[in-house]
Design brief:
The protein is α+β, with helices and mostly antiparallel strands. The protein folds into six domains: 132 residues, no CATH class; 84 residues, Sandwich (Immunoglobulin-like), CATH 2.60.40.1080; 109 residues, no CATH class; 43 residues, no CATH class; 157 residues, no CATH class; 154 residues, no CATH class. The protein contains 29 helices and 17 strands. Helix 17 packs across helix 18 and helix 24 packs across helix 28. The termini are far apart.
């Protein structure tokens, strides 16, 4: 503890520094002419520190600072930066009597040794502005505030590689003034190999075709600029964008999704692939809508159906089925992270089952997802009875709960604002800890209730954070009810977009925004007009999940062929389908259905579908190998406990598949015992596993190999068929949906 004399000395030094910073000295008054504009620290000095990289996370903007000097990340806290520059180190970072002797200038110009190297020219405009600010008394005037910044070009298409594009930034202030701040803006590229920046001339050159982003930052305003250089394969517009001529010469209105996708493809000079045939369509849509492969009878019936509208008819039939409800319960359970609260033997499996059952009942009743979200956010009661209340038991404390809420309900990674303002988005520490404070009053035992009190300490102020909704300035007085009303309001900019993006990703392999829980302003959608239209149309249809799924899967965009040569860009833009690995649970169920050998997971005495398991930590080596997700995160794509290579090797050599293939009660061996011909059995296997008959070359290849066992023992014939069956189930065509 400091002595009384030390405290007095500290207070005296603080007063002297404060007086020097706030009160203009006689020398300053004499040195500054009445016509010289005073430099504003917040809007003129902070941008220089950002532009030169001084407050990046790799420099003084890191949590611990660098070399004893700590700045807020990207200037997110000007008050703290002002204190660090003018008060800390005994005020020696600035020298009011002789600005050139200030450490703030001598270090970056390398007049003194600087760990960050040479970052500022002593004769530059930036150095002159800092020098003038110090000479004027190094004060924080706060004479104006930025209202908005316009960066240009926000969107531009160039026609040839190497074409120079001028960058520009204009700041508009609350005092009615505006200023060209291009030279004080930090410009960066997402891909340095494709886009070349000239920071002296403030220009950008695109070196290769594609959609490229340049990020612009001035103070806490950050925005992406999109520049497109079309591909050379096709720059003509597809004639089907606006309409297609019918047999009678009348225009047929294009599907809204196809129109918006094809407009985007034309802009990029990309040509969409053709629509898939009936066999591939049925397999794809069955897996996406029901999580199951179509039966052999369904494949045969669909192929023989001559109705021109049969795809829509079959889609509607699946949407009305119990299988759709079961499978999309699994999808929502994955997105909302349904799992057993607790650890080890104390895991509450009943609560997880109740949560999953609540989702299923809501889908059976065709409850809109907005109402489901409202019920989820406001849930109270015994989590064994009121399953939605389990949501509040899945996080360790209010801070983690705030992160789970923002990621699952808003598609936003708010966790980045825990220790500092989000470097690439609008979110602040006030947003993060304010949302956490809103959840602090929730008692999350088996019975979830509102305690009426609870605190979260704000790390910057060391005071209790004020409960607030992210992005909103006013404190929350209505608790979780107010949060739910805000989240599900039609004007809310997050919930509908986040859910539409997740559904799109589930059906087409990649979201319009990737990753799906990182919908920040510097990570724009690959097709913003499409995401906007789908979100608004979904709201107009009551947040009906079935309407949204139906709208997507009835489009040509969803039904396009998979082109193995298509690039990632073509797949994300909707020009080609993508080959999507089946989720672990879906693949396990497919293996059970096809082989006719059911799984018994964990302590279940009866066969169980993997997608119906609420306890994702139920012991199952097969599901672990196949890549199940523990639902502690987004679960986008495979999140296996083993690598993709290990999964492949295990399928090839492990006992998971070999046991199913060799089971004497399974489909293959039962059909062999029935005396069916090789040709018929081969066709049945293809229809059962791949939802299509074999091609003539495939049929000839396999029949030749299988007939080589004729005249041999029965065991030799069985082994040959097992090898064929194993090869088919290991194939990429079986383990993916494409």
């Amino acid at each position: 503890m400091k002595s009384g004399r030390a405290w007095c000395r500290s207070i005296l030094v603080g007063l002297v520094v404060w007086a020097a910073a706030i009160l203009p000295s006689a020398a300053h008054d004499g040195a500054t002419s009445s016509s010289e504009q005073l430099v504003d620290f917040d809007t003129q000095i902070i941008p220089i520190l950002t532009r030169q990289g001084c407050n990046r996370g790799s420099c003084h903007g890191s949590a611990a600072g660098r070399g004893g000097f700590r700045l807020s990340l990207y200037g997110g806290d000007p008050a703290a930066d002002f204190r660090a520059i003018t008060w800390e180190l005994g005020g020696r970072r600035i020298h009011r009597a002789d600005a050139d002797r200030s450490l703030l200038l001598r270090k970056p110009t390398e007049d003194l040794e600087h760990g960050g190297g040479y970052v500022l020219d002593a004769d530059s405009e930036a150095a002159m502005l800092i020098r003038r600010w110090i000479a004027q008394g190094a004060r924080r005037l706060q004479r104006r505030r930025v209202e908005r910044v316009e960066f240009s070009p926000a969107h531009l298409r160039v026609e040839r590689a190497g074409e120079r594009v001028a960058l520009r930034a204009t700041a508009y202030y609350d005092d009615g003034s505006s200023e060209d701040v291009t030279r004080w803006t930090a410009w960066t590229t997402v891909d340095d190999t494709a886009v070349r920046l000239d920071l002296e001339q403030h220009t950008v050159q695109v070196e290769r075709p594609g959609r490229h982003l340049v990020l612009a930052r001035f103070l806490d305003v950050v925005a992406p600029l999109e520049i497109i250089l079309p591909y050379g394969r096709s720059t003509s517009r597809n004639p089907s964008i606006d309409g297609t001529a019918s047999a009678k010469g009348q225009a047929v209105q294009r599907h809204p999704i196809d129109r918006l996708v094809e407009e985007r493809l034309a802009e990029l000079g990309l040509k969409p692939s053709e629509v898939v045939g009936d066999y591939a369509f049925l397999r794809r849509v069955s897996l996406d809508l029901t999580g199951r492969l179509p039966s052999v009878d369904e494949v045969v019936a669909f192929a023989g159906d001559l109705d021109r509208d049969k795809r829509t008819v079959w889609i509607d039939r699946m949407l009305d089925s119990e299988e759709f409800t079961i499978f999309w319960t699994y999808r929502l359970a994955t997105w909302w992270r349904v799992r057993a609260p607790g650890r080890g033997h104390s895991r509450d499996v009943i609560a997880a089952q109740a949560f999953q059952q609540w989702i299923r009942e809501s889908l059976e009743q065709r409850t809109g997802l907005d109402e489901m979200a409202r019920q989820l956010v406001t849930a109270t009661g015994d989590s064994h009875v009121h399953g939605a209340a389990t949501f509040f038991r899945l996080a360790n404390g209010p801070r983690e709960l705030a992160e789970v809420f923002s990621e699952t309900m808003m598609g936003v990674r708010l966790r980045c604002a825990n220790c500092h303002n989000h470097p690439l988005d609008q979110w602040t520490q006030d947003d993060y800890h304010g949302l956490a404070a809103l959840f602090a009053g929730v008692q999350a035992g088996r019975v979830v209730r509102d305690r009426g009190h609870g605190e979260v300490i704000h790390p910057r102020t060391s005071l209790p954070a004020v409960p607030r909704i992210p992005g909103e300035a006013a404190p929350v007085t209505g608790g979780r009810q107010q949060l739910a009303s805000w989240l599900t309001a039609p004007e809310n900019p997050y919930f509908a977009r986040a859910m539409v993006n997740r559904v799109w990703a589930a059906l087409l392999g990649k979201g319009l925004v990737e990753p799906v829980d990182d919908m920040r302003r510097t990570n724009p959608a690959v097709n913003e007009r499409l995401l906007q239209w789908l979100s608004e149309a979904w709201k107009d249809h009551g947040y009906d999940l079935r309407w949204l799924v139906r709208t997507i899967v009835t489009s040509d965009t969803y039904q396009r062929r998979w082109d193995p040569k298509a690039t990632v860009v073509e797949q994300r833009m909707g020009a080609s389908a993508s080959a999507r690995p089946l989720a672990a649970e879906v693949l396990a169920d497919a293996l059970a259905d096809v082989t006719g050998v059911a799984w018994k997971f964990g302590g279940h005495s009866e066969p169980t579908r993997a997608i119906m398991l609420a306890d994702v930590e139920l012991p199952s080596r097969a599901l672990d190998i196949l890549g199940r997700c523990d639902r502690k995160g987004t679960c986008q794509g495979a999140a296996p406990k083993v690598s993709g290579l290990a999964r492949t090797l295990h399928l090839l050599n492990g006992d998971t598949l070999n046991r199913l293939v060799g089971d004497r009660q399974g489909f293959l061996h039962r059909r062999l015992e029935s005396g069916v011909s090789d040709r018929v059995l081969l066709r049945e296997c293809y229809l059962r596993a791949l939802s299509r008959p074999p091609t003539s070359s495939e049929e000839g290849h396999w029949l030749k190999l299988l007939t080589e066992t004729e005249g041999g023992s029965e065991e030799l014939r069985r082994a040959a068929w097992e090898d064929f069956w194993w090869a088919l189930l290991c194939s990429r065509e079986f383990t993916t949906n494409h």
